[in-house]
Amino acid sequence: MGKRSRQRQRNQSAAGRDDRDKAGWGAGYADIIKENKLFEHYYKELGLVPDGEFEQFMEAMREPLPATIRITGYKSHAKEILHCLKEKYFKDILELEFEGQKIEAPQPLSWYPDEQAWHTNMSRKIIRKSPLLEKFHQFLVSETESGNISRQEAVSMIPPLLLKIESHHKILDMCAAPGSKTAQLIEMLHADMEVPFPEGFVIANDVDNKRCYLLVHQAKRLNSPCIMVVNHDASCIPTLKIDVEGKKDILFYDRILCDVPCSGDGTMRKNIDVWKKWTTSNSLHLHGLQLRIAVRGVEQLAVGGRMVYSTCSLNPIEDEAVIAALLEKSEGALELADSSADLPGLKWMPGVTSWKLMTKEGQWFSDWSEVPSSRHTQIRPTMFPPKDPEKLASMHLERCMRILPHHQNTGGFFVAVLVKKAPMPWNKRYPKLRKEASSLSAAQSGDSPAASTPADTTPDLPESAAEEAEVEGPEGKIDGEAEEEAPKGAAVAQESTAKQDGVCGPPASKKMRLFGYKEDPFVFLTEDDPVFTTIQSFYDLSPNFPKLNVLTRTHEGKKRHLYMVSKELRNVLLNNSERMKVINTGVKVWSRNSDGEEFGCAFRLAQEGIYTLQPYIRSRIIRVSVEDIKVLLTQENPFLSKLEDDAHAQAKKLVMGSIVLKYIPNPNTPAEPQCPIQLCGWRGKTSIRAFVPRNERFHYLRMLGVEVFRDKQGLGQKLKDEGKEEVAKDAEEEVEAVENEAELDSENGDENGSSQPKVDSGSQGTSS
């Protein structure tokens, strides 16, 4: 497409945006009236809102949701970003007005630790349209892309906090897309930046194949080797196997986030179309699915583990009813944890112990016995509170937490924390591996209880039947059956071959070709792979470098990119290739560079994986100062002589090729950044350059006190440092780069992700 066409397309989309913004909050929803009589009648009757507060509740629901941002907590840069926000941007916002509305300065969320989350009464429209907030808006966009800030609704930050994540936990996020909560889980795993490979990991699942790629986009910003994105129906997500001291074992998770699909009536402040679409039948249709997902979650939870169940709905049918059904059928294996002291400062309402059910025609039912048989398929017994007062009291449903919008100017939300005390009653023993399940094959091939049980009675399955239900092979047989029929020697040979090759191929074709995209295989390298010969000597890798954790995405031909995963995720990948559809895992650490072969190594370092890889690299490192980093990030190809004497002397000792540029903070100079910075670079014949993605480049410049922003026309970038101004050279390409960054890459890592972005070549001379 030519430049004129691109410009015309941009002008049209900008005009469209302006029209939506002129229509008021909601971007195109101006014609939707924020009224729903059925909604008001239903929630008034249920009495979830305290006496005398219902009008405030409804007024809050009609107001736009305030903007909230969260600073990523696992990076050591978090404090620097917070300092930058407070000193540079929040001070400018004081006493501002926009269209007659006074803009309040952002305030930290009182219940979020370490001032890492902030909110303001500014809506997205104000932030985007006010000229006075242009720099702040660009800061948010850029820092979000580089993974240092997440624009996330306040209430959605709550579930990961209640999980109490530690670095060794194995975590499952059952319904993870779009990924803001998943990002929090990853941050918590990496709380200690000194540990490149935490023992724990996050498996993030979503049923929607396309949304999985959105999830990948979110996770990739955090550059973690401990995240895997998979694509399954959460209600029947497969049981995974792992090797434990040479023996096969079932993978049970220490923490599970069960943020289920819901009617979303707590999101009316941002999803305006919920006002006209809301009806009580939404909850009735979703209850069964929500319960099935929650049941599957607790089955996979380790004894002693925690599962957080959450919805962005206020409806008890989707909330307390699901929890009560789960607790009743667990027969004491689960209990609701008291989380009242975990988030001091958060205002919430305790869960309710009685509720009624209403059809969309306005008919009420208080008990299952009142429901006519004609409605038994739509309304189920688990939707009503337990009848036995003693059993109801023992459930402690008041420990559930419901967040109402008018209490702290948030969205509506529900959250409950479950602790597993014993195996589930339909799993009195831990489930055995499939090869031991052949004795149960007769039951499976007949009228399987798992196949015929209605959604809401799934927990009544006999021992291990639930496990069998989800491991059916392509022909409807369980894995154990298939193994029994095949000669034992062949099965062993096949297994040893897979282990030897270190390959986790794509899942079984019959299952997965029906939807989604075909994924490349995950091929682990062996310790004696020829690739390592030059890499080992060129970068002088330490002896404890985990070569077995390195993988590529191709069986044949030259390896283009090398990725790393933690040894725990490697264990999961190698033992579950046939039962798991993996969309993405690993962080890119090296990329092939054809020019590099003549300098001693065909692979250059990738910025995405530098913090993971650098602890193992013992050569090719140049210690740089703040001034050196400014030069490297604002000039395209500066001469070596542009560096300060110390860095210049180090660079002269190195041959041409890929390098690490390392800044170590000095506690005696508090004006400089107090966090380590590591950049990938290239030492040329007479010049040096940094290979850093565009938004990450701007992030580091801001931390060093260099102001980076776009001019009013949106054409080009400006860099300001102590009064000097340099305007970016190629404005057209800059704007295109901004637009293209939002596109998702289906491969594991963007091929151009570490290439040199054209930030500013200014008037500096360049040299090859």
UniProtKB/TrEMBL annotation:
Residue segments, region Disordered: 1-21, 435-505, 719-768
Domain SAM-dependent MTase RsmB/NOP-type: 57-421
Biased composition annotated in UniProt, kind: Polar residues: 438-456, 751-768
Binding sites annotated in the UniProt record for S-adenosyl-L-methionine: 175-181, 206, 233, 259
Active site residues according to the UniProt entry: 312
Bias (Basic and acidic residues) ranges: 719-730
Family recorded in the similarity comment: Belongs to the class I-like SAM-binding methyltransferase superfamily. RsmB/NOP family.
Name under which the protein is recorded: tRNA (cytosine(34)-C(5))-methyltransferase
Organism: Larimichthys crocea (Large yellow croaker)
